[in-house]
Amino acid sequence: MxxxxxxxxxxxxxxxxxxxxxxVLAVLQNPNVLLAANSVVINVAPDxxxxxxxxxxxxxxxxxxxxxxxxxxxxxxxDLVQDGLDMEVFAAAGTRAKGxxxxxxxxxxxxxxxxxxxIESVFFMLPYVSSIFAAAHISGLEISTTRVENRTNMSLxxxxxxx
Length: 163
Fold this sequence. Notes:
Layout: E1 6-17, H1 21-28, H2 31-36, E2 41-46, E3 55-64, E4 68-81, E5 84-90, E6 96-107, E7 110-122, H3 126-146, E8 154-161
Antiparallel strand pairs: 1-7, 1-8, 2-3, 3-4, 4-5, 5-6, 6-7
């Protein structure tokens, strides 16, 4: 899509976990655990258009201003990398997201998990879309990482650009 009709917003998530990096990666690199932990997801299936291991069709329930909700399907690709996960989402109305999640050891048995997601959407939908993405990704990380630790230290930062 083309600016000025579309805008981008970057969502950065950071979490410090008091567990070894290997345990964090075991959760982060398990697509079934990661996608199922997302607060809006109700169904995950291997993508029929791209039957490789990395493509999924996801169905989620999206609430609009608390007035009504609807089901939405989108496609996503999850690529496992040595220190985390790369993801790409293709949703309705030209909405796209690209993200990188990385786990790194910051001291013995302490891991920093950092995610950066760039969301692109039609300008008038971007605030709504980015709030859904942020909430879903935070809950997904919270639920997923609760399997390895009970303490949390999550921070969320929004950065906007029109690139």
